[in-house]
Structures are given as structure tokens and as C-alpha cells.
Design goal:
With 896 residues, this protein is of the alpha/beta class. Among the domains are: 15-107, no CATH class; 177-323, no CATH class; 789-889, Orthogonal Bundle (Arc Repressor Mutant, subunit A). The strands form 8 sheets. Strands 8, 9, 10, 11, 12, 13, 20 and 21 form an 8-stranded mixed β-sheet that branches. Helix 6 (132-139) links the parallel strand 6 and strand 7 (153-154). Helix 10 (199-212) packs antiparallel against helix 11 (215-224), helix 18 crosses helix 20 and helix 31 (802-811) crosses helix 34. The longest helix is centred in the middle third of the chain and has 34 residues, at 423-456.
């Protein structure tokens, strides 16, 4: 029997190996023109091979005569490889002497490996992969050859990674890891090439990848060879088939059956939970990165995942995903269902909050669709509806209530109005909006009644108007700092809320007057009546009630004033040169600019569907940048607000404007009010105006102004300077202006360990003018929260404890006062130990920067020996007090 050198049966030489031997002998033909190889005399390759420009013939010899014939027939200049199983001693000298080494060389495919990688040897562990490996390395050798082995030794990782990149059609220079592999396997060309690789190669590479890259990559390769479905889609499906440990739900029968049916897509082998989670986690991370990069392939992957789950008999699984659109739709549907059960007599706020949190946890909540924003806003409205309502007792109360509360309701309602593409959510949102409209309409009527009462008699509750902005805000500020006054024509208080948020996020800080009892809140003033530009804006720039046009405004302002046409800049510039020069001129303490973007939108666009920001108000961002460079204090205000067209009643009246009509056109209807006297600048000193938002006298537009509603009549006054700059005298950095229900769940009933303090009684309304108060200092802040002031029973015990006293001693002068500690802990306890940073700052009347410093001091008092009693949640904005841990650390008995 013919055997090899090691006693094993001779093998059939592959074309790849013989091709490599042909290259060897062609490199040094002087060493001998003939090579004898011990192999089975079978050749399935071409009769000759071109190597180094030389023809190398390949012949088989089953006998001495056949070998001699091959040698004799060799042409001059050609080379010859003879494959023979005849023992060397039987071939004879005529054959062996002219051959290389004058002997039969035993076929050693493994010896070709070092030369392929310019190495001196190879790792013996390579032999564990089987004798197919050398042939495969030769067959898949790239045009430029395999990379040089860095250590001179061909390792398994070097060889197998090379084969993997070749099998996938990638460059050997490509860096490949688990994440790259998952993305690559979704490329059709790569997928096709991988499917066309030999089963032996695919099996070996899958095994190696599992050891080198992990189970996720192994499963991905296994699935790619058996299916055209995206491996990322498989991963998303596995994410719900085998959810992570945070999902406490018991697997459904259909889910378990689907797991078994899924196996056929992964080579029919059982899938372990560990393997499933590996691919699921890797796919999630990869898809999230792709989503952030705006990859257009993500929607197709999501669709495939939903289809695959349906194919394996568990379409419901898609609704459990926090990645798939079906999961987002399911969570939105749960919110709609919860909202349809909203009843102000027995609202299930905890359930609504929980459903909202689930929706916001979905990855698509961060997308551009606006669905998550509408969901967040509708829950804010439900919180507001569940909050305690405090009826305003005066005109100043109406203004304060709208600035601190109602304007935020209007901002939320604007988003909810254009809220959802889901039919059930749209219906639920409409139901909530209807309830909101009832309360807001009541406030509008109360406001109109107070306006009417104030105008009908002697001044009792004097509220500042737009004519007071210049003498009482702008002029005093310009005496201590250079100012830029920007009048955003038509900006309502609700619109101002979103604009100021964007301005603050761009590096500015809001300032409020540092007046005792003011609550440090943003203030509003009254528009002239009717609330039209002709009256209100002229009054603003004149400093007294007046009617006029742009020329009158310029003449009476007493400082450079730029209107729309004045803002046209020359080529290459964003702002006109005289405006920029004026801002940089310290001899000009005040400049004014009028921006018409919002007011123009009332006639031409859709202000109801617009979220106003720095970037969609023409010139605003550029003006802020120029003001910052010039070190100017910024004053943002308006001349009037606006209401949006949302199905209004058209009531044509002769001689009427959009939202007011002359008294000669008839008496006021129940949804109107007749106003006359001071502040009424309509011809004749009187006018009939709507007290509801959904009434107009003119043709339909996108929005209107002129009526007597809170949204039209109240003008916000906002003062800002650059973040970190010193506030002017009598001003301070403002606390967050958002109401409590904006960021935190409303607690209808106080906790067991919280005792309600009696609410401060409001003084009886005086019949005397309140001239002793500063003009911009209104009455007390309106109450819209369920528990305005509480005492927490365990706080005194905490402060009397030995450990707390020791902590105070260690803190020294940096320690917070006991009264401030009491305030902070009380608010935290009110909210169950979790409260938004802005709510905590507003409750204390401090800015976020000041609160950050206070919380650091409070942590030094409470976080004893590294125990985290007071922390910040991972969202970066929620302050968390672990009351249980506090009780244990300070040995309190009152909190259980």
C-alpha cells in the first residue's frame, strides 16, 4: 500500500497547493527543472500553470514508465511537476537524478503557510482547523498577498481574520470587530459572498468568530449563511424573545413557541438565553449608533424585525420592543387609553405618569416626529387639570397667574393641538384639550371682568402697561448698563416661554427684579386696548399711551430704532453696519429693534404649529450674538400677544376689525365685553372686544389679536445678560420659571408623614390705590399646586440628631442654614423623594446655579461615610432623596 512520510494514505493534490509549488520552482529554476511529489496520481487542474513567466507542466505517473515519459517530453525552458504514488526506489535514476533534491518530495500543504505571510513558521494550533486550511489560504489570497506576520509567526487570529475578510469580500486592511461585522453582514454584496463560501470554511470561521468576537458575532454569521433577513433585525427580534432581566413578565406561551421556531434561522441549533442577549445587545447598540448618524437603513431593519416576529408566530412581540415602531405605537395606545379614563373627580395620575414614562423610555421618543413631545405636554395638561385652582382676586392676580401658570398651559396646549398621528391618541388629546379650554376660557372671562371693573371706576389695581416698560424697566437699566431692546411683535407669554428657554440654552441668563415678595418671577404688562400694534407698540416706544406708526415710534423713542426695512444688510453681512456699530458704541446706552416674524405669521403662516426658537425668528440669533460681543443687557418684550385660528366663529360686523368692533355696531354679546376709558385707544375711547379666543369679525387668518383675552393682552417683559455676568443693581439671576406641574407629577393627596400647614390668608381687597408698591411688584404668587406649604415631621428630629450636628460642625461656614435645609427637604418629601431640579430651585426662589451649590452643601451634611442619601438621577435633572437610607443613617424614629 502506498503511504506518505508519516504513514498516512497519500492525498490528492489540490490545484491551489500545486499552484503554490509551481510558484516555488519558478522562482529558482536553476535548482532543478523537475519536482517529484508523493501524491495520488490524480490531477483535476489545468495541464500547465504559468508562474513567473515560465510554463510549469503538471503530469501524473502511475509507473516508472509514465514518469520517464513525462521527463523525456519536457521542452527546453519549461518546468515539470510529477504527481506519483510510485516509491522512490522504483522510479529509477533516470527520473530521480534530474529532479530537485534527487528524491520524491512529500506533499506538505502546511509548509506553504509561512511563505504566504512572509513568516518563518506557523502556530501549530492552526492544524486543529483541518487540512483544508492551507488550500483555503492559497485560494483566498488577495491580489497583494496576505499581510506580513508581525512576529514572524502565522497565528490563528492572523490567518482566520484574513480568511474572514476575504470570505466577506472586504479588504485585508479593514479593521473588523463585532460592531463592524453586524453592519457588514447587512450589505447585500457581502451577504451573497458569505453565502457562497464553502460550508467547511463557513463552519470554521463561525467557530473562530465565536471565540474571538463573542456570541453575537457567531450568531450573526450563522444566520447570514441561512437567511437574507438583516442580522440586526434578528437581534431586535431576539431582544423581545429573550428580554433582559429588567423585564419581569412571565414568557407567554406564544413567545416560548416562537423561540423554538426561531432556531431554524440560526442553523437549527438551540439558542441559549446568553447567546440571544449577546446578539440583542450588540444589535441595539449598533442600531442606536446608526440612528444617531441618521442612517437611512434603520427603518428597513425595523420593518424586517417586525415581519420576522410575525413569521415565527409572535407578532405581539413587536409591541413589547422599546426599539420597534410597533412598540412605540403600543405605548402610545396605552397612554390614549389611560387619558380616555381621565375624570377630574377621580383622575388616575399614577397610571398616566407610568404610561408616559414607558413611552418616553422608548428609543423612538427621541425622534423628530413630535409624538413624544405631544405625549409629554398632554400629561402636563392633565397634571394642571388635577392641580388646585386658585381664583384670581384682582387684575394683578390675573396677570401673575397667567405669567406663572396659564402661559405654560397655552404652550403645552399648542403642542398637543397638533399632537398625534395615532387616531386613538388624537381623540384622547382632543378630550383633554376640551377640558383645558373650559378652564382657560373661565380665566379669560375673569380677566375681562377685572379689566372692565378697573376701567369703569377710579384706579384701584393699577397694573403696568406697555407704556410703562420704557420708563420703569428700560431707562433704569440703561443707567447702569448698555442695553438692547428687542420688540418681538406679537409675542405672547406662551411664545416667550419657548423663546427664552432657547435663549438661556444658548448662553444667556434671565434676570428678575430683586423685590421682596415678588417671588422672583417673570413679569407681564398689559397691552393697550384694542391689543393692536398701532396702539400698543407706539405706546411702548413713547413711554405713554399713544397711537401711531413707525415714524412716530422712531421720533418718540429717543434712541436708534431699527424696523424691518432698517435690518436689510449689505452683501456678505448678516446685520446692517450701523446697527453693529451702534451696539459697539458705549456712547449709545440704548438701541431698539423690532422683529415682525411672529406677527407676520398670524396672517401668512401657521403660528399654532410653530415652536418659536432663536433660529426661526429672523435676525434674533444674530442680534443676540452681536449684543453678547458688545456686552449689552438684553430686554425682550412685545406689544401684544395673539390667539391662533382653531375653528373660530366668524361674526361679520360692519366697521369691525379682526378682533374688535366699534360700540356703534351693537351692544356686547355674552362672549364680548364693552370697554371704555383709559387704556382704550380705539376711536371714541371705547370698543367691543371678544373675551373668548374663538370669535373673529374679519376673514379667516392663521391668527389674530385685538381682543381681550389673556393670550392677547398680556405682554411678557424679559431681561437677560450673559451667563456668569454680574446682574445689574436691583436685579438678580432668575429661578426657573416653569410651574411645578411642568416637570413633576402632581400629588393630589399629601403623604402620610406630611402635615399640611394652613395656607396664608389673602388680605381683603382694598378700595385704595396700591401706589406704595413698586410698579412691577404685583400681589402674591397664585397657588396652583395641591400642597402649597407643608411641614415634614421628621425634619426637626433629623436636625436634633447627634450625627447631623456633627456633620454641621465638620461643614463649618460652608454648612447650609437649618431653615434652608428644612425648605429643601420639605419640597423633596412632598414629591416622594424625587423632584425636578427646576422645581426645587423655583420653590426656593434661587437660580439653578445657586441650587447646584446648595445641593453640594446638603450632600456634605447628609451623605455620611459615602452613603448616597442625596443624589442626582441619571437623567441629570432629577434630585433624589433616599428617605429610607436617611432614616437608617441618622437613626430617626419618626420616618418608617
Amino acid at each position: 500500500m502506498t503511504t506518505s512520510e508519516v504513514g498516512s494514505p497519500l492525498r490528492i493534490a489540490s490545484p491551489q497547493i500545486i499552484g503554490e509549488y509551481a510558484q516555488r520552482i519558478a522562482q529558482s529554476p536553476e535548482a532543478g527543472r523537475i519536482m517529484l511529489l508523493a501524491a495520488r496520481p490524480i490531477w483535476n487542474g489545468p495541464p500547465s500553470i504559468a508562474a513567473q513567466g515560465i510554463t510549469v507542466w503538471v503530469r501524473t505517473a502511475v509507473s516508472q514508465l509514465a514518469a520517464l515519459e513525462a521527463v523525456t517530453d519536457l521542452l527546453a525552458g519549461d518546468l515539470l511537476i510529477i504527481l506519483t504514488d510510485v516509491p522512490e526506489e522504483e522510479l529509477g535514476d533516470a527520473v530521480t537524478i534530474p529532479s530537485r533534491g534527487q528524491r520524491v518530495n512529500f506533499l506538505d500543504e502546511w509548509s506553504t503557510i509561512p511563505e504566504l505571510f512572509s513568516a518563518v513558521s506557523y502556530d501549530p494550533q492552526l492544524r486543529e482547523y483541518g487540512n483544508w486550511l492551507p488550500q483555503s489560504l492559497i485560494a483566498h489570497r488577495p491580489p497583494g498577498g496576505w499581510p506580513k506576520a508581525p512576529s514572524g509567526i502565522v497565528t490563528a487570529d492572523l490567518a482566520m481574520s484574513g480568511l474572514l475578510t476575504s470570505a466577506l469580500g472586504m479588504s485585508v486592511n479593514d479593521s473588523i470587530d463585532e460592531a463592524h461585522l453586524l453592519v457588514a453582514l447587512d450589505v447585500p454584496e457581502i451577504r451573497t459572498r458569505w453565502a457562497g463560501a464553502s460550508p467547511e470554511l463557513r463552519t470554521a470561521l463561525i467557530t473562530w468568530v465565536g471565540r474571538s468576537f463573542g456570541e453575537a458575532a457567531r450568531l450573526a454569521l450563522a444566520a447570514s449563511s441561512a437567511s437574507k433577513i438583516s442580522v440586526l433585525a434578528f437581534g431586535v427580534g431576539l431582544d423581545v424573545l429573550w428580554p433582559d432581566s429588567s423585564d419581569a413578565r412571565t414568557p407567554a406561551t406564544e413567545q416560548i413557541a416562537a423561540r423554538t421556531r426561531a432556531e431554524r434561522y440560526f442553523g437549527s441549533a438551540p439558542i441559549s438565553p446568553r447567546e440571544a442577549r449577546a446578539l440583542a445587545s450588540a444589535s441595539r447598540q449598533t442600531l442606536l449608533r446608526m440612528s444617531l448618524a441618521g442612517d437611512s437603513l434603520v427603518p428597513a431593519v425595523m420593518q424586517q424585525a417586525e415581519t420576522w416576529l410575525a413569521d415565527i408566530g409572535w407578532a405581539e412581540g413587536a409591541s413589547r420592543s422599546d426599539l420597534l415602531p410597533a412598540g412605540f405605537a403600543a405605548r402610545a395606545g396605552q397612554l390614549a387609553e389611560a387619558l380616555m379614563g381621565v375624570d377630574l373627580a377621580s383622575v388616575d395620575l399614577p397610571r398616566i405618569e407610568g404610561v408616559l414614562n414607558d413611552l418616553l423610555d422608548h428609543q423612538l421618543a427621541a425622534g423628530p416626529s413630535g409624538e413624544a413631545a405631544a405625549a409629554r405636554m398632554v400629561v402636563r395638561l392633565v397634571r394642571w387639570l388635577a392641580s388646585e385652582e386658585s381664583a384670581p382676586q384682582s387684575l394683578s392676580d390675573c396677570v401673575s397667574l397667567h405669567m406663572a401658570d396659564g402661559s405654560w398651559v397655552d404652550r403645552a396646549a399648542a403642542t398637543v393641538w397638533t399632537g398625534s398621528n395615532f387616531e386613538s391618541n388624537a381623540a384622547a388629546y382632543a378630550r383633554v384639550l376640551k377640558m383645558v379650554q373650559v378652564r382657560r376660557t373661565l380665566r379669560d372671562r375673569q380677566f375681562a371682568k377685572k379689566i372692565s371693573e378697573e376701567l369703569a371706576g377710579p384706579p384701584v389695581d393699577t397694573v403696568p402697561g406697555t407704556e410703562d416698560i420704557l420708563p420703569h424697566v428700560v431707562r433704569p437699566l440703561t443707567s447702569v448698563a448698555g442695553c438692547l431692546l428687542i420688540v418681538l411683535d406679537g409675542m405672547s407669554a406662551a411664545t416667550a416661554n419657548s423663546i427664552v428657554e432657547d435663549v438661556v440654552n444658548s448662553g444667556w441668563q434671565e434676570l428678575v427684579e430683586d423685590l421682596e415678595g415678588s417671588g422672583h418671577s417673570r413679569r407681564g404688562v398689559l397691552s393697550a386696548i384694542p391689543s393692536l400694534t398701532t396702539f400698543s407698540r407706539t405706546s411702548l416706544f413713547a413711554g405713554h399711551l399713544a397711537a401711531g406708526q413707525q415714524a412716530d415710534e422712531k421720533r418718540s423713542f429717543g434712541a436708534p430704532l431699527f424696523h424691518k426695512d432698517d435690518l436689510r444688510a449689505p452683501a456678505g453681512a448678516r446685520l446692517p453696519g450701523d446697527l453693529v456699530a451702534g451696539l459697539n458704541d458705549p456712547r449709545k446706552p440704548l438701541l431698539g429693534v423690532v422683529l415682525n416674524t411672529i406677527d407676520d405669521a398670524l396672517a401668512k403662516h401657521d403660528p399654532g404649529g410653530t415652536i418659536w426658537t432663536l433660529n426661526n425668528i429672523q435676525h434674533l440669533a444674530d442680534l443676540l450674538q452681536a449684543a453678547a460681543l458688545a456686552g449689552r443687557t438684553l430686554i425682550l418684550t412685545s406689544d401684544h400677544g395673539h390667539v391662533v385660528e382653531r375653528g373660530s366663529e366668524h361674526r361679520p360686523v360692519a366697521g369691525a376689525a379682526g378682533r374688535w368692533r366699534p360700540t356703534s355696531s351693537g351692544p356686547a354679546a355674552p362672549d364680548e365685553v364693552e370697554l371704555s376709558g383709559r387704556r382704550v385707544l380705539a376711536p371714541g375711547g371705547s370698543a367691543v372686544v371678544p373675551v373668548v379666543e374663538n370669535l373673529r369679525y374679519s376673514q379667516k387668518q392663521a391668527g389674530y389679536h385685538g381682543g381681550c383675552t389673556l393670550a392677547e393682552m398680556i405682554v411678557p417683559v424679559i431681561v437677560l445678560n450673559r451667563a456668569g455676568a454680574l446682574a445689574p443693581k436691583r436685579w438678580r439671576v432668575a429661578p426657573p420659571q416653569t410651574p411645578g406641574w411642568w416637570n413633576d407629577p402632581v400629588r393630589v393627596q399629601p403623604a402620610d408623614n406630611v402635615q399640611t400647614r394652613p395656607r396664608a390668608t389673602r388680605k381683603a381687597k382694598s378700595t385704595e390705590p396700591r401706589q406704595e408698591q413698586p410698579l412691577f411688584q404685583f400681589g402674591p404668587e397664585p397657588v396652583t399646586e395641591p400642597a402649597a406649604a407643608v411641614a415634614v415631621s421628621w425634619v426637626p428630629e433629623l436636625m436634633q440628631s447627634r450625627m447631623y450636628q456633627d456633620q454641621r460642625t465638620r461643614a463649618g461656614r460652608r454648612a447650609l442654614s437649618d431653615s434652608r435645609v428644612d425648605e429643601l427637604l420639605t419640597v423633596l418629601a412632598q414629591h416622594g423623594g424625587r423632584v425636578h431640579r427646576d422645581s426645587l430651585a423655583r420653590a426656593g426662589g434661587v437660580s439653578v446655579a445657586e441650587l447646584t451649590s446648595e445641593l453640594a452643601a446638603l450632600r456634605r451634611l447628609l451623605n455620611v461615610e459615602g452613603y448616597q442619601v442625596l443624589t442626582q438621577d441619571s437623567d441629570g435633572v432629577t434630585v433624589v432623596l433616599d428617605i429610607g437610607l436617611l432614616t437608617e443613617q441618622f437613626s430617626l424614629g419618626a420616618v418608617r
